[in-house]
User: Fold this.
Amino acid sequence: MSENGNWTSKKSSGKEVNFKFEKEGDSLVGHFMGSIHDVGTKKNSSIHTIKKTDDTEVNFWGSMVMDDQLGNIPFGSLIKIDYLGKKENKKKTDSYHNFEVFVDESVEPLVEAGTAPTNNAPELAASSNGTFEDSGDLPFE
Assistant:
């Protein structure tokens, strides 16, 4: 490995987001391919990647609720994410986007050649061409 290579930090840049949960009842089904964290203009957001059954990759912004639920999902697991809409917090002073994540434990996790089955590894969430770009389009702001 060359020390003088063309190194690009994946931690400081996002990648193209191509899916957004827009209305209550929206759902997404596919294999969880990982997450990258500390992206966006404030460097405090996450982008998650799902590989759908048609082999297309979907990248979407996380939220506190979604990030928490995806945090313990093994790499490659078949999951379903349901958007439950915007909800008021317990104090009724603010609202948040609510999600529920399901895992199909009857399906073996998908492990592709050249990837290690570790959760939330930034290199696993790279697009097929390995590029990342900061779209500046932060979720829910």
Notes: Confidence is low (pLDDT under 50) at residues 117-135.
